[in-house]
Amino acid sequence: MISDKLDKAIRESKIYITENGMEVAGAEQLDVIVEATGNPEAGVDHALAAFNVKSHVVLVTVAIVSISPFAYVILFNPEFASGNAPSARVTTLPL
């Protein structure tokens, strides 16, 4: 469940600032999540939360591949990933 403030920001196309990345990553109303925290553990959590609500994910935190075999497969499997640099892959999963 997302907060009323996030829901309002989404409906009004406004900027929303939070310290709770999981709230944003798990928002079903968003089509794309940009994961750029620089924190590999948080990056994996955010990506998985976004995948669970069928959002696309842009992973900028390149160190994710060192801690998650799942992320490695997504980033470097041409069936799942597009883009030309591992540090800026756009990951779209077939839904």
Helix/strand-derived category reads alpha+beta
N-to-C terminal Cα separation, in Å? 22 Å
SSE pattern, N- to C-terminal: HHEHEHEE
Shape: globular
| Low-confidence sequence ranges | 84-95
Number of helices: 4
Rg (CA only): 13 Å
Strand content: 5-15%
Mean pLDDT: 75
Biggest β-sheet: count, sense, barrel?
A: 4 strands, mixed
Please tell me about this protein's structure.
With 95 residues, the protein is an alpha+beta fold. The protein has four helices and four strands; from the N terminus they run H-H-E-H-E-H-E-E. Strands 1-2-4-3 form a four-stranded mixed sheet. Residues 84-95 have low confidence and may be disordered.
Summed up:
By secondary structure, this protein is an alpha+beta fold. The protein is built from 4 helices and 4 strands; from the N terminus they run ααβαβαββ. The chain is globular.
Fill in the keyword field for this structure:
95 residues, alpha+beta, 4 helices, four-stranded mixed beta sheet
Please render the helix and strand layout as text.
Blueprint lengths: L3 H8 L9 H5 L6 E4 L4 H13 L3 E4 L9 H8 L4 E2 L6 E3 L4
Parallel strand pairs: 1-2
Antiparallel strand pairs: 2-4, 3-4
